[in-house]
Amino acid sequence: MSRLIDGLDAAIAACRDPAQADCLRAERAAAQARSGHLAEARFALKGLRVLTQRRGREALGAWVPFLAGMIEHFEALSPQAFTHFDDARQRAAAVGLPRLQALSLAWMALCHFNARRFAPMVDAMVAAGRLDTERDPGVQARLCLVRADASRLAGLHERAQRLYLNVRHWAMSQGDTAMLSAMAHNRNSGQVDRLGLLDALGERREDEARRALLEADSCSQLDLGLGNEGLGAMPPVMKARLYTVLQRWGEAVALYDAALDEAAGSGMAGLVPHMGLNRAWCRWHLGERQRAEQEARALAPLVDQQPDADDRAAGHARLAALLARCGDSAASAHHQALAQAALEEFQAFQAALAAQLAQVDAVLGD
User: Which residue, 76, 193, 238, 264, has most beta carbons within 10 Å?
Assistant: First the structure.
């Protein structure tokens, strides 16, 4: 049990106002959802929804959609989480709960980031920061994490590292182990994305991949210690991608086989073409050449359906390399050109995102 949840338990026990105690219970259940204890959070949500019907439970009526958003997000990165967080924000504003309003905005910023809606992400972060005049650790940690992840995506790696350290500071100040776990996962995911793209483009970073694999193992051990049952497909997919870079072909294929179907249903469907091509690349090196070619050609039409330019660049680059090995030089050259075009699009995207993040920095500082 984290120190954060222990503190909420103590606050609930000491609270003499039943309505306020119910709000604390909702906040505790939200912390459970973030820790991956989704069954407990769902059970709490069911009971708290009933209590919102009582007189004088307007504040609880704002906390309940916030808790529902947490559960939706950590079960499957569901887009429905955004609707719940927005509902919580509006209700919190109506009943005068600025901390919950800022928390909701910070989580809305995360949803915008995941959906690549960067202009509203910037607006949500700035609004949350301006509301959080008391510098609440939960608000600050979430804001810093979104800013760090966005900075990493924009290629601002030193800036991202400073912000990850800020996340660590705020999380440790209240014993929020779930936030520390999220930070570790997100930072590792960013490293894997970068290494995977470089590897697909022919630039292998073996030493960095080994260090990233150690971090991935550390994340898995932390999840095990926390009893985290949320987003279970993510760590195996991350490891499979690193095994691909490290040319541990058989281990990579085993993890792709085990995790890709779950990933498709847990908010990572956009990665499936890229991951499937990685698996085909591994199969080729294991001697399963006919199967590798069949899988590659079946996935080829799906590469441009991926929403992110870096994933399209990596997918086309993998296809080019595979088709070259299959003796189809014309198709290989075609996909190599598409990979270069997607890479240039990604670099332009990074520059535009960096400019948007400068707006946040100008208002919120470090």
Answer: 238
Which candidate, 96, 87, 94, 93, places its Cα nearest to that of 68?
87
Q: Is the CA virtual torsion 128, 134, 139, 141 positive or negative?
A: positive
Distance of CA 23 to the CA centre of its chain: 27
* Burial call 127-164: b when 16+ CB within 10 Å, e when fewer: bbbebbeeebbbbbbbbbbbbbbbbbbbbbeebbeebb
Residue 230: strand, helix, or coil: coil
High-pLDDT (> 70) share of the chain, % = 95
Measure the CA–CA gap between 328 and 348, rounded to whole angstroms.
Answer: 31
The residues, ordered by sequence, that sit 6+ positions from 273 with a Cβ below 8 Å of its Cβ are 299, 302, 303, 305, 306, 311, 315
For the whole model, what pTM was predicted? 0.90
CA distance 75 to 63: 19
pLDDT in the model for residue 337: 98
Contact between 273 and 238 under an 8 Å Cβ cutoff? The reply is no
Check if the beta carbon of residue 144 is closer than 8 Å to that of residue 169. Answer: no
